[in-house]
Predict the 3D structure of the following.
Amino acid sequence: MPTAPNNLALKRRLDRYFWANDTGEMVFLRQVLEDRFNAFDRIAVIGGLVRDFAHEGRAGFRSDIDLVIDAPADRVAALAAELGATSNRFGGFGCKQGPWKIDFWALETTWARRHVPVQKLEDIVACTFFDWDAIAYDLKGRRLICADNYLGRIRKRTLDINLLPNPSPMGNLVRAVRRLVLWKVQAGPSLQHFICEHLDEAALRFIHAKEAELYASPVSTRWNTADEARAALLSNVRGRKGAQFELHLD
């Protein structure tokens, strides 16, 4: 399925998937949402699932589900205790429910609040590291939350940074490498800078190890040096801007 042509088409994809899908996994997920999360007034799916549906439709969705809840942190923590969820270092919780791995957190504990204002659910899209992840689906309102040009960014086949400060630069470097290679997209200006700044020999060894730990199909093992990795990741940037920029940094 191609990239959604507009926001209405993307909303219809998500509406059908969540509310008109009678597969066993979705019947189970709807029951979990009804039983465990329905008490919260505002809750949204953010990032991977919504991004993948925008990019390729259902066929592109292979990630877990991430929920952000506009409710006091103590209420979200109480739910986590009921579910036996484990806390993570980013202020959220994770649990397994049937076939689903669900990560969730309270809006007020969002890590990026120290860098951008986060007062309502709509603000969450300013908090993601990658611009392709800056989209959410309001479950109760059944509406999209994203910038007007969100789908245009995807159609340009350029991945860039949405919010630079983040608690895991090396983790995001791994994700950047895999996304650029597997999605066959080019790095935008801010992501070019990030790669040139962070991708040294030690970082490449870290990426090799992390991919071996987490993924069945690593992509970074094709490069023996950081110079090779940077050249490959930035080679498709128009006008060779990436290579020029790398020389300037060195």
